[in-house]
Amino acid sequence: MPSPLDSTYGAWFVSLFIETILYGMGALQAWIYFTGRPTDAISVKSTVLLVLALETIQVTFFFRSSYFRFVERFGILQTDLIWADSLQLLAAYLSAFAVQIYFASRIDKLTKARGKFGLSAIGLYTIFLLAFVQIVAGITQTIRTQKGEIKKTNYMVDMLIYDAINRGSLTAVSSCLTMVLFLALPDTFWFFLGLAPSSKLYMNSMLAT
């Protein structure tokens, strides 16, 4: 018979393990970016720094919450979320929002450079709207593109689409998993298996581009 801790502290511990690995990958990606792209625009470098800072805050408070549960409250099952959980969730939502806006701005820049939006405008406005809805929902919880005629432009747009599909798939699966586990297994921490890595997936996807 499974231990009653499997669905709470067990799920929490596994989530922390996965998230820490993804954070380490992101930190390495950031290091490679700054050493390999010294001439990039300040706006891009600032976005990378912002996302890295937010993800550092998120993982730090996740560890703080874990210390509270596993050390300060040792032997006492603590299933209620504490202030550190609220801060780490807020940092994760802000990080995901920054990445979403970054990708939307890249697509926007490419399409504007061609002098027209076309159907891509609908996708851009949808991205901005959903990003805004997500960040509002996240804060409340805690208190795409036409091809051009130039081959190089087509390649850049193709890469953005390819990345958006992969990024969207990973984060969509993560969000879906979070919702399903939260609804299907209440009073457990299984939903953290999808929630904890989600913002790291956003960071890894952005830095991979």
TrEMBL record:
InterPro entries: DUF6534. The keyword Membrane applies. Residues 142-209 form the DUF6534 domain. The chain crosses the membrane at residues 12-34, 46-67, 87-105, 117-139, 172-196. Pfam families: DUF6534. Keywords: Membrane, Transmembrane, Transmembrane helix. It comes from the Eukaryota. This is DUF6534 domain-containing protein.
